[in-house]
């Protein structure tokens, strides 16, 4: 535990300001008087300390090599005697010190701001603060505040590393193409149209069961959703929901409904349309004629191919060339790793239908075919006429040389080369990696991914806090204080511009539906939407989550979209649209600072601030089943007494009194208080 805050004047009780040793703020008690006494008394008041890399505290979150970085630290007024920045510079492998100087007070008079500048250079740097009050010292870094100097969890400075602004500022909509909308019945897969791996295709009626009539053949079930259908529903995506980024599960030629067993990376599957259909969808998404300019992200399945791919050709489907399974003399034999040709080979999780690609050494044929060459898969779809805006990398940590399972030197080399290839075509293209844990090894260096699928830092903790279940549907409940600590700890894993480009989703095609975990309680979806649209990262809506779609584990999580429910009049869809509009209206909700304001385990209440130079916003969430009055300590956001705050959902105005705002929040709902 850290040291305790000093008692303040009047009726104020002692501030509880202990911090978890390496994580985050505990709940702040109610403050009933705005005056706060602080003095040089050999005691650093932790409760007044704040820094993150929001625009008020870091003048260059994405600096060039020529830009010095000026950092701001907040303390209670008159509390400390000195402060220093201690930073590690990768250029010389040494630590350096920068003395900070007092700069200003905040509008309330409660806080001092101290500033210091780290000189410009091209090297990567990592920093923490040393804060002194006479003989007492506290340390602050991204992981939290401690009395002893931390050895990890520092803030990042990565000159020259940027993540796409459109991803940081956008809202993404994920679509499993076969299940969204059937726009062209002429390309539907019919019953028994073909047989793959012993399963004949099954055409199911829209809205019917996703389970195959033949046991073990669920991947052979088709409903008719396609790219033309997505194109026809762009008005719903852009205007009714408000999303401007579309992420599609795989669309390339494949015998399965999920398309993760690619047969040809250069051809759109005919069940979804054609290459021309994808070109049209991309152009219509980019257009502003049907709503705001949009962006298109495709799923890149580059760890493995399908066993029907012409490079492998297990079933002799291709003519005019010889695949690796057919002959050891095949020109693509080295694309795979055989332990005993032809039937024993490295495959994704042992699935023989998904043989792993062997990326070999830098410059290998596989690397050139996937991303290195100008005619490679990655570069082709980024270029005109398709002009997609980014790649989501499936099973990204497993890409490797020699049939291994990745997460090694070769994997990171491959990812760095892939980034260079992507950015050479479009510097603003996004690279979104799939990793279910701490994706820091791929993002913290500024040379691989722009962001990751945020299972660890969003999906799992949100599910456990709101639904009492993990994303697999198993019982797992956490109190709000643990929820807040989890969020703080996972944010600390990433540079700020990566945090802002992380994909924050409630459900995906790989886990049970949030609506299912919530037991069908639409109010829990409401609460989750409040958090999703006001938290750090890119809100990502898995089609149907905006109305609380049900669904258990795969394949049940891939049900068809219910167009009788997915309408502007649906309460959850309408709330989604309103929350997206609020997020779009306030940059503070996208790239502003994040500050914990309150956690209350007993009443299941959570409040936090998002703020920048233009706006201060307090979000109050109630995870209980009954209404609670939440007293939010907005003095921590420098909201002044007598100032007006507007609750953005209801339009109700509040006045700050004694540094606080009290607002009644319905069970499983939220309030967004802005000034």
UniProtKB/TrEMBL annotation:
<dbReference type="InterPro" id="IPR004185">
    <property type="entry name" value="Glyco_hydro_13_lg-like_dom"/>
</dbReference>
<dbReference type="InterPro" id="IPR013783">
    <property type="entry name" value="Ig-like_fold"/>
</dbReference>
<dbReference type="Pfam" id="PF00128">
    <property type="entry name" value="Alpha-amylase"/>
</dbReference>
<keyword id="KW-0326">Glycosidase</keyword>
<dbReference type="InterPro" id="IPR017853">
    <property type="entry name" value="GH"/>
</dbReference>
<dbReference type="InterPro" id="IPR013780">
    <property type="entry name" value="Glyco_hydro_b"/>
</dbReference>
<dbReference type="Pfam" id="PF02903">
    <property type="entry name" value="Alpha-amylase_N"/>
</dbReference>
<dbReference type="GO" id="GO:0004553">
    <property type="term" value="F:hydrolase activity, hydrolyzing O-glycosyl compounds"/>
</dbReference>
<keyword id="KW-0378">Hydrolase</keyword>
<keyword id="KW-0732">Signal</keyword>
<dbReference type="GO" id="GO:0005975">
    <property type="term" value="P:carbohydrate metabolic process"/>
</dbReference>
<protein>
    <submittedName>
        <fullName>Glycosidase</fullName>
    </submittedName>
</protein>
<feature type="signal peptide">
    <location>
        <begin position="1"/>
        <end position="27"/>
    </location>
</feature>
<dbReference type="InterPro" id="IPR006047">
    <property type="entry name" value="GH13_cat_dom"/>
</dbReference>
<feature type="domain" description="Glycosyl hydrolase family 13 catalytic">
    <location>
        <begin position="174"/>
        <end position="583"/>
    </location>
</feature>
<dbReference type="InterPro" id="IPR014756">
    <property type="entry name" value="Ig_E-set"/>
</dbReference>
């Amino acid at each position: 535990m850290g040291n305790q805050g000093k008692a303040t004047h009047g009726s104020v009780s002692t501030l509880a300001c202990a911090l978890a040793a390496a994580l985050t703020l505990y709940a702040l008690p109610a403050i009933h008087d705005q005056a706060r006494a602080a003095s040089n008394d050999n005691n650093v008041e932790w409760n007044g300390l704040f820094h993150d890399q929001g625009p008020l505290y870091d003048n260059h979150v994405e600096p060039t090599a020529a830009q010095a970085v000026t950092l701001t630290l907040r303390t209670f007024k008159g509390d400390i005697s000195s402060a220093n920045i201690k930073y590690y510079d990768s250029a010389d492998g040494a630590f350096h010190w920068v003395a900070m100087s007092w700069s200003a007070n905040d509008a309330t008079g409660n806080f001092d701001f101290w500033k210091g500048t780290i000189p410009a250079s091209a090297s990567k740097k990592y920093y923490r603060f040393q804060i002194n009050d006479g003989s007492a010292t506290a340390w602050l870094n991204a992981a939290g505040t401690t009395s002893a100097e931390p050895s990890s969890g520092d803030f990042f400075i990565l000159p020259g590393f940027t993540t796409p602004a459109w991803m940081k500022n956008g809202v993404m909509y994920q679509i499993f193409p076969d299940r969204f909308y059937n726009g062209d019945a002429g390309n539907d897969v019919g019953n028994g149209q073909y047989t793959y791996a012993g399963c004949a295709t099954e055409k199911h009626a829209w809205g019917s069961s996703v389970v195959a009539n033949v046991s073990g053949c669920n991947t052979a079930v088709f409903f008719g959703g396609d790219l033309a259908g997505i194109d026809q529903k762009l008005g719903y995506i852009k205007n009714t929901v408000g999303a401007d980024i579309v992420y599609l599960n795989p669309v390339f030629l494949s015998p399965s409904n999920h398309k993760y067993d690619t047969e040809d990376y250069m051809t759109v599957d005919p069940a979804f349309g054609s290459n021309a259909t994808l070109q049209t969808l991309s152009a219509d998404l980019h257009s502003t004629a049907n709503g705001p300019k949009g962006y298109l992200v495709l799923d890149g399945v580059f760890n493995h191919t399908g066993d029907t791919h012409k490079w492998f050709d297990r079933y002799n489907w291709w003519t005019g060339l010889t695949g690796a399974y057919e002959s050891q003399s095949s020109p693509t034999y080295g694309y795979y790793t055989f332990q005993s040709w032809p039937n024993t080979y490295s495959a994704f999780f042992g699935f023989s239908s998904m043989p792993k690609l062997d990326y070999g050494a830098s410059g290998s044929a596989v690397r050139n075919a996937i991303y290195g060459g100008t005619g490679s898969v990655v570069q082709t779809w980024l270029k005109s006429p398709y002009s997609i805006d980014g790649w989501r990398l499936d099973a990204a940590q497993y890409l490797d040389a020699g049939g291994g399972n990745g997460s090694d030197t070769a994997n990171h080399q491959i990812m760095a080369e892939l980034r260079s290839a992507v950015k050479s075509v479009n510097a603003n293209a996004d690279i979104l990696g799939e990793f279910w844990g701490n994706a820091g090894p791929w993002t913290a260096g500024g040379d691989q991914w722009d962001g990751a699928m945020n299972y660890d830092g969003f999906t799992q903790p949100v599910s456990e806090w709101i639904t009492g279940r993990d994303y697999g549907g198993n019982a797992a409940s956490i109190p709000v204080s643990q929820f807040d600590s989890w969020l703080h700890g996972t944010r600390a894993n990433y540079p700020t511009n990566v945090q802002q480009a992380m994909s924050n989703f409630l459900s995906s095609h790989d886990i049970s539906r949030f609506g299912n975990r919530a037991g069908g309680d639409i109010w829990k979806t409401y609460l989750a939407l409040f958090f999703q649209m006001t938290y750090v990262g890119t809100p990502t809506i898995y089609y149907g989550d905006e109305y609380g779609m049900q669904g258990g584990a795969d394949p049940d999580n891939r049900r068809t979209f219910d167009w009788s429910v997915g309408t502007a009049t649906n309460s959850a869809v309408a709330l989604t649209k309103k929350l997206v509009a609020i997020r779009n209206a306030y940059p503070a909700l996208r790239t502003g600072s994040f500050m914990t304001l309150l956690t209350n385990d007993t009443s299941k209440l959570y409040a936090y601030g998002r703020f920048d130079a233009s706006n201060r916003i307090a979000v109050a969430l109630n995870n209980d089943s009954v209404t609670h009055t939440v007293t939010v300590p907005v003095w921590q956001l420098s909201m002044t007494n007598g100032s007006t705050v507007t609750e953005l959902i209801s339009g109700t105005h509040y006045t700050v009194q004694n540094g606080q705002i009290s607002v009644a929040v319905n069970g499983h709902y939220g309030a967004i208080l802005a000034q």
